[in-house]
Each structure stands twice: as structure tokens, then as C-alpha cells.
């Protein structure tokens, strides 16, 4: 799992994703985008990428750099992210998730969380992970 978090919201989602994966007996490596060394995507069955949406719907530069580090478009990318509808409304909400999902032609719908994953949004994260794992098994 690779993620970028400034405020801690995306990190919170990543922690829930990791917890759910471990509950399902999935081994998880964490990669903090912009801090940890590059990964080799060939070692992973699924790569979860977590990001927030910056400015007016932009993907953060560190995430773009991570995409370049991977060097190609693996077909096993699942994208999640945090956003805020008060900045740009629905049109720009979690736009980085949409952009990355489209770029990677992800098999899975991106997960979008308003700010931090509290309350019902925590269950939304867990359900999304379950769906990714279930769908991934059908490709194995």
C-alpha cells in the first residue's frame, strides 16, 4: 500500500485498509509516498494507492512522482482518497482518485472519503476493501 497524507486523513484511511487486509490474512507492505524508497510493483498482487486531492482537483506532485517511479501501468492498482466538497463542490471532489483510476484503468471503482473516515465512512472503507479482494480473487 502506498499513500500520501499531509493532514492525516488519507493516512487514517490507509490504516483502515491495512487493518481490513490483515483481518483477511493478507500481507501488507506500507510505502509512504515521498518518504520511502520506490517499490517494485512486480512483487505485489494488488497495489493500493492513497492520495488526497490538491488545489482545484489536482493530484499531488509526490503522487505523480510515485507514478513515474513505477514506470509502467500495472493492472493491479486500486485507488482510494480523501477530499473535501467545500473546496470545488462535487465536480472536484476527490478528483485525484478519478484521475489515477482512469490512468491505470483500474479494475475497481475508486474509494472517495469526505475528509476523515469517521463513523459510517469507516464501514465504507471496509466494504470497499472486501469488494477489491473479492474481485481480485476472480482474476487469480
Q: What structural category characterises the helix and strand content?
A: alpha/beta
CATH H-level superfamily title:
Flavodoxin domain
**Biggest sheet details:** 5 strands, parallel
Radius of gyration: 14 Å
The succession of helices and strands, N to C, reads: EHEEHEHHEH
Approximate strand percentage: 15-25%
Contiguous low-pLDDT stretches (5 residues minimum) are none
Q: What coarse outline follows from CA principal-axis ratios?
A: globular
The largest beta-sheet arranges its strands as 2-1-3-4-5
Helix content range of the residues, please?
Answer: 40-55%
The name CATH uses for the topology is Rossmann fold
Describe the structure.
The chain is an alpha/beta fold and 140 residues long. It has a single domain (2-134), classed as Rossmann fold. 42% of the residues lie in helices and 15% in strands. It contains 5 helices and 5 strands. The chain has a 5-stranded parallel β-sheet with strand order 2-1-3-4-5, with helices on both faces. Helix 1 packs across helix 5 (120-139). The longest helix is centred in the C-terminal third of the chain and has 20 residues, at 120-139. The model has no long low-confidence stretch (mean pLDDT 91).
Quick summary of this structure?
The protein has 140 residues and is an alpha/beta fold.
Notable characteristics:
single chain; 140 residues; Rossmann fold; 5-stranded parallel sheet; 5 helices
Amino acid at each position: 500500500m502506498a499513500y500520501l497524507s499531509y493532514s492525516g486523513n488519507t493516512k487514517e484511511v490507509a490504516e483502515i485498509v491495512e487493518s481490513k487486509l490483515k483481518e483477511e490474512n493478507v500481507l501488507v507492505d506500507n510505502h509512504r509516498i515521498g518518504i520511502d524508497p520506490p517499490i517494485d510493483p512486480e512483487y505485489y498482487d494488488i497495489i493500493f494507492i492513497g492520495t488526497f486531492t490538491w488545489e482545484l482537483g489536482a493530484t499531488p506532485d509526490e503522487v505523480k512522482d510515485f507514478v513515474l517511479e513505477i514506470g509502467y501501468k500495472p493492472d493491479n492498482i486500486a485507488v482510494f482518497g480523501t477530499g473535501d466538497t467545500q473546496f470545488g463542490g462535487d465536480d472536484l471532489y476527490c478528483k485525484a482518485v478519478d484521475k489515477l483510476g482512469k490512468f491505470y484503468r483500474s479494475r475497481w471503482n475508486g474509494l472517495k472519503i469526505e475528509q476523515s473516515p469517521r463513523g459510517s465512512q469507516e464501514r465504507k472503507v471496509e466494504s470497499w476493501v472486501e469488494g477489491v479482494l473479492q474481485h481480485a480473487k476472480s482474476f487469480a
